[in-house]
Each structure stands twice: as C-alpha cells, then as structure tokens.
Amino acid sequence: MSAAAVERPHGDRPLIAEANRIMDRLPGYRVEIIGGQILVSPPPDGPHAESLTDLVLPFAASGLHGAESKVLQGAGLWLPTGTEDYAIPDLSVVDADYRDHYVENNCYDPVCFRLVLEVTSSNYRTDLRDKVKAYAAAKIPVYVIVDRKHQRLHVLTQPTGDDYESHRPHSPGEMVTLPKSIGAEVTLDVAELLKAGQPKSG
Known about the structure:
This protein is 24% helix and 33% strand. By secondary structure, the protein is of the alpha+beta class. The strands form 4 sheets. Strands 3-6-9-10-11-12 form a 6-stranded mixed β-sheet. Strands 5-4-8-7 form a 4-stranded mixed β-sheet, with no helix packed on it. A two-stranded antiparallel sheet has the order 1-2. Strand 10 and strand 11 (152-160) form a beta hairpin.
C-alpha cells in the first residue's frame, strides 16, 4: 500500500513521487530511496517470511513489544543521507512513542529506532553494503543482517560516520545475544534462523 507524497515547504519530492508510482504499479514490491537512488526489491519468498517470523518471536517473548518499545515489520526509516532518502527495514525495534516521530511518506525519524534487521534476498549486496552506510549515518545503534547468501548472521554496533566500528559475523552453531541497549536480552540461534531461510533444494 502506498501513501501520497507529503508536500514540504522547500519544494516538490520527485523521487518520492516516482517511488510511490512504482509501488502502485508493483504491489508487494519494496521501494526505497538510498543515496538518491530508487531501489526496487521483489516480494520476499516464503523462506524469507519464515525466517522473519522466527525472528519476531524471540523479540516479542523478551518483552520488547510492550509499553516501552514496539517490534515492527516494514516500518519506514527516514535517512539523513539525502533529501528524499528512506529505507524500509524488514524488522525494527522502536521506542513505543515512535508515532510522535513521524516525518513523511510512512517514515519515522531514526532517533526512535533501537535496532533494524534485514533478511537478505536476491539483492543481498544492498543489505551488506548500501544499508550499512545508510543505517550508520542514521546512527541506528544495532543493525542485524541475516545473510542467507553467505550463511552468516552479522551484528553491527557503534555507528560512526557511514560505518559501524563493530561488525561481527556469526556462523551456524553459535548462539548470539544482542546488545542489551535494545531494551531486553534477546538470544538468536544462528543455525535455526539460517535453516528457516533456506529455499527447498533440488
């Protein structure tokens, strides 16, 4: 579902208008603007959705979807990297008052985001490169990537400039506890998440 672009005092929003036209023409596709470029991602496959559900459960069980914070899927994040830049993370942990931080075009100010998470698809390079820079520039404290292509779980913390000072890849067999700064202790089983995200072979 798309929303009409909100006019702002400093002029029109040609990229956002075009992004919204693409969303109208291609229902189910994810359309983002990063670095002044429109990125169009096809609808996720079933294993991507399954992996995402398996991620929602431990976040919710930890109490993060409650009075102090919320666990959201597909909530827009306004980026400081361009005048019309925004991303749509697969999963986010945000402050409970995120509605007070609405910017435009179904996007919210990065100040209310505690964590963003992406499950890679065919355009995995975007999650592993472009979004690292974008989320670091937005000062998102924790960025988690379920890298289905390379069978790794990446945890990035300590954003500085357009990168993260800490970038730790984890392999199947590891249990990863995310930073408590997100508001609760969440431990992820790397093997189980990656297994859920695998397409049927042969």
